[in-house]
Fold:
Amino acid sequence: MSNPLIEPTPLDRALSLIADVPDYPKPGILFKDITPLLADGPGFGVVIDEFARAIRGLNRGVDAIVGIESRGFILGGAIAKALEIGFVTVRKPGKLPREVYRKEYALEYGFDALELHKDLLSPSDNVIIVDDVLATGGTALACHDLVGVTGASVVAHLFMLEIEFLQGRKIIHNTHPDVSIISLLKA
Ligand code: AMP
Structure:
């Protein structure tokens, strides 16, 4: 429970704008809707500043942000701009026009696949993968695998929100113990 005597920080206030939507898109799923936060200028700004601060705090050279379609694009694009580094899109199947690597994976609610243009990353690149929500970790792991095929290295996974009981952090950590996993909010 929050302490009424402690003033919420601007980051707390921003993250409190994430809306819970019960039974969406399927019964039993509590959907975390970040659109009210994105629509709030100061809130969006503070979240991007916090992501950029966390990345700088890793003290690792980072060449690009990899964003997962579609909310990872909104966050990742803004983070890449803040850090003045490149942004690489990882998309749902059939959206990218040139040669792709493809990885299929299981979702909290269904199955999907991710694709990455083959020529955007090279073995010398260090990247950070960004998405809005960490649930089971399947999406993040699939994206990690795609990046791995190019020979590039994943330094960290960044999320706005982590749904702790689904244990995505543990799944990523078990497969990639040296990778940092950063979330701004645990729910
Ligand atoms: P997962 O692969 O299970 O970790 O799911 C993560 C991906 O699915 C992210 O791209 C999220 O945007 C989306 N997602 C999964 N569960 C939720 C949820 N409860 N609320 C919002 N987005 C979710």
User: Anything to note?
Assistant: The CA atoms of residues 99 and 168 lie 30 Å apart. The mean pLDDT is 95. Residues 29-32, 68, 71, 107-108, 131-140, 163, 168 surround adenosine monophosphate (CB under 6 Å). The domain at 60-186 is CATH 3.40.50.2020 (Rossmann fold).
